[in-house]
Amino acid sequence: MGIELVHIGFNNMLAMNRVIAIASPNSAPTKRTIQEGRSKGLLIDMTNGRRTKAVIIADSGHIILAALAPETISGRLQGQPKTVTPDEEV
Where are the domains of the chain? Predict the structure, then answer.
């Protein structure tokens, strides 16, 4: 059994079976969620210094920031992910 990964830009990969939601970062509740994640140490910034276009919420409570639009990430999640076995290099 492998882990299904999706590429979210800048050679960053995400375990697609752990994603609960993908949101735009512009709303007040999403901005509040980002701040709460930052204060709890659960924020993961995968933007490589670019503007945040999507906020991904994982089932572990982690908040992931991505530079790709939510629609792009959603399309990649619905596409064919790369499956990696635990002993493979990512």
Answer: 3-84
Q: How far is CA 34 from CA 4, 42, 85, in A?
A: 25, 9, 31
Contact 73, 13 (CB under 8 A): no
Q: Are 64 and 58 in contact (CB under 8 A)?
A: yes
Tens digit of each residue's pLDDT, the chain (90 residues): 578 888 888 889 999 889 999 999 999 999 999 999 999 999 999 999 999 999 999 999 999 999 999 998 888 888 754 555 555 444
What phi and psi, each to the nearest 5 degrees, are found at residue 36? Answer: -65, -40
CB-CB contact of 46 with 66 (8 Å): yes
Instruction: Of 61, 65, 59, give the one whose Cα is nearest residue 8.
Output: 65
Q: Which of 62, 52, 55 is closest to 18 using CA atoms? A: 62
